[in-house]
Every structure is written in structure tokens, then in C-alpha cells.
Write a structure and sequence with these properties.
6 helices, 364 residues, Alpha-Beta Plaits, alpha+beta, five-stranded antiparallel β-sheet, 4 domains
Length: 364
């Protein structure tokens, strides 16, 4: 006779009524019937991991996540672990997953569990195939489709940007996008960089990114930028969808360039073109300054990098010095600027308009 007066509804064995279980019916079952009905582990028949074939991002729920993996075995292990369930009343659970690579897209997951249920030790092993599926994430789909919202047009006043400036502009855009990606921003990308007549066009995924690139270019090279918007289409609610174009205008002259402003005071070595155009008068050592928006139409004479080292023959007085002309090797008298050191044996010089001009040893 049952001491508690309670019986298992399935087999008739007497029970004490204090057994574990999520429902009253489960608690009424004896241990054998309860363990026969429930497994220690609930495992799916198969797990699929979707990977973007272009960038390698992994789909998790409704979003794509950049994980930077070369081997997706660990990703498949994580997916299987997330899909496995353990009985709610189980205790002292320990488990491990051993992957077995079948081919490039299939991994068998051997999952071993041990634990206690109703104070009985249990061990269970399940086999879950993990399939790696290839797809295209929204970001790569937009890139492939040429989607963009911002355009940065890199131009220069009175000249074309040179190759160095164009290469650096593209590099800065990619660096800025990489910083956004490192912060988890999957909306940031460079759609296209195109060399065009007069400069460079950089197409970017968002208008905010376009503005950031334009601002970074001005911070790096000087100059200024303006923007204007163009209506592209309307969304489902009838709101306008716009693209923004940022027109960057680099300065007319670059640091290290030698120019003649045509004001009668001789050539100028440009030293800065950021907020204002400023430089050094080679013959007098005086300062040259002009607003970027109202820079003179100066003649271009050469570059600081074109300088040649020549011998000082004699210091005539506080206004003149004799040098060897680096082309004719004849002694010539030139203006003595304040930055010339009287004990110097050699000095850097540049030839412009048939005359020789002394350059400072450094650009500072």
C-alpha cells in the first residue's frame, strides 16, 4: 500500500508527491516514467549559419554581424550551443561540443552532456549537423548595386589636384570608413572612387560620411568646401530622398611650392595653405600672406624639392652674397636674406627666371 496514497498515473507505482517537474502532471509521475518522457537535452535536427559571400559577415537573427573570421567552425559551434536546450530542472550540468568538418559547408557537432535530473546522474550525446550557407548581406548588396548618398568632389582653385593629392584624398576616405567599421557601423562604406577631369569623385554610403570626408580633406590640405542637395526619389511615405554633393576646393598653391605673386617683391616659398595662404619672401625674408578666397594669380616657379646645394663664394655685405651658379658654375651675386648664415659654406638654392635664390635650410 502507498504510504502517501498517491500513485504514478502512468504505471501505478506509488509516489511521495514531492517529485520535481514543471507541471502538476509531471510531478505526479514516478522517476522512471518522468525520465522516459523527457530528455536531458533538447537539440535541433540541424543548424544553419548564413555567411555573406562577399564580406564574411554572419547573419544573427535579423541582422548581419562582422566577425572577421577566416574559419567559421567556431561560429558554427556558437550557433549550435545557442540552439541547444537543457531541461529546466537539471542540475550539475557539464557539456562539450566537438566539431567534425565534413566538407566546406557542413560540420557535424558531437555534443556530450552530463547532469542530474531528479537526483539521478544522466549522460546524453546528440549529433547536430551545422550547415554554412552563402548569401549577400544588405551592405554588400548596396555596394554591388552602386548605392550612395554622398559625393565628395575633390577639385582645386586654378589648377588640377595632382596625383599625390588624389591618392591621399582616397586614402583618407577609406581610413574614415575603416574607423566607422571598427565601431560597428555597417552603414559606412566607400561605393566608388573615380578619377574625373579636374580631380576626383568619391561616392559614399551616407551624407554624414560625405561631410566628414570633406571636412577631413580641408583639415589636411586646406581650402574649403560647399554642399548642395539633389532630390533623387521619394520614399513610401512621400518624403523626399536626397543626395548631398560636397564640393571641396583645395588651395591654388601647395606648401613647398615657389611662386611669384607679381607684386615686385620677388618669389615666395609657400609654407601654409590652410586657413590663409602664407609664405616666405626668398630675397628679403619677409612674410607673405593672402586670403585663400582672394589668392593672387601668381606664376609657378618650381618646388622646394627642386633645390640644389651650391657653394658660398663670399659674403659681400649685409645685402649680398656670392654663390656658384649650380647650372653654369659661374660666380653670381644674389640677395642675402635674413635666414642666410654668414658662416655657411654651402646653401640650398633654386633657379627661377634666370636668377638664383637662396632657400632656408628648413621649411619652418
Amino acid at each position: 500500500m502507498s504510504r502517501s496514497g498517491e500513485f504514478c498515473p502512468r504505471c501505478g507505482t506509488d509516489v511521495d508527491g514531492r517529485a520535481a517537474g514543471p507541471t502538476a502532471r509531471d510531478r505526479a509521475l514516478c522517476d522512471d516514467c518522468y525520465l522516459a518522457e523527457y530528455d536531458l537535452v533538447d537539440a535541433p535536427e540541424r543548424v544553419e549559419v548564413q555567411v555573406c559571400a562577399r564580406c564574411g559577415a554572419v547573419r544573427r537573427g535579423n541582422r548581419w554581424v562582422d566577425i572577421g573570421a577566416q574559419d567559421y567552425t567556431d561560429i558554427a559551434v556558437d550557433a549550435v550551443q545557442e540552439a541547444l536546450g537543457v531541461h529546466v530542472d537539471a542540475t550539475e550540468i557539464s557539456w562539450q561540443v566537438a566539431p567534425e568538418q565534413v566538407d566546406e559547408t557542413t560540420i557535424r557537432m558531437h555534443c556530450q552532456f552530463t547532469g542530474r535530473l531528479r537526483d539521478r546522474p544522466l549522460a546524453e550525446e546528440v549529433l547536430v549537423p551545422a550547415k554554412l550557407g552563402r548569401g549577400t548581406c544588405e551592405r554588400c548588396g548596396r555596394i554591388a548595386g552602386g548605392s550612395y548618398a554622398g559625393v565628395v568632389q575633390v577639385r582645386a582653385r586654378g589648377r588640377d589636384p595632382d596625383q599625390e593629392e588624389c591618392d591621399r584624398a582616397a586614402e583618407l576616405a577609406h581610413e574614415l570608413v575603416a574607423a566607422h567599421e571598427a565601431d560597428g557601423d555597417r552603414e559606412a562604406f566607400v561605393t566608388e572612387v573615380t578619377a574625373v577631369e579636374g580631380g576626383l569623385d568619391i561616392r559614399l554610403s551616407t551624407t554624414q560620411l560625405g561631410e566628414q570626408v570633406a571636412r577631413r580633406l580641408v583639415e589636411t590640405f586646406g581650402g574649403s568646401y560647399t554642399d548642395h542637395e539633389t532630390l533623387v526619389t521619394e520614399d513610401g511615405d512621400g518624403n523626399g530622398v536626397y543626395r548631398l554633393t560636397y564640393a571641396v576646393r583645395l588651395p591654388p598653391y601647395r606648401p613647398g611650392e615657389l611662386v611669384d605673386p607679381g607684386d615686385g617683391d620677388g618669389p615666395v616659398l609657400i609654407q601654409s595653405a590652410r586657413d590663409r595662404l602664407s609664405g616666405l619672401r626668398l630675397d628679403t625674408g619677409g612674410t607673405f600672406e593672402a586670403p585663400l578666397d582672394d589668392a593672387p594669380d601668381a606664376r609657378r616657379l618650381g618646388w622646394r624639392s627642386d633645390a640644389a646645394e651650391t657653394t658660398v663664394v663670399a659674403v659681400e655685405d649685409e645685402h649680398a652674397v656670392q654663390l656658384l651658379d649650380p647650372e653654369t658654375y659661374e660666380s653670381v651675386t644674389v640677395a642675402r636674406p635674413p635666414f642666410f648664415h654668414p658662416d655657411a659654406e654651402t646653401v640650398p638654392v633654386i633657379r627661377a627666371d634666370g636668377s638664383v635664390h637662396i632657400l632656408p635650410e628648413t621649411d619652418g
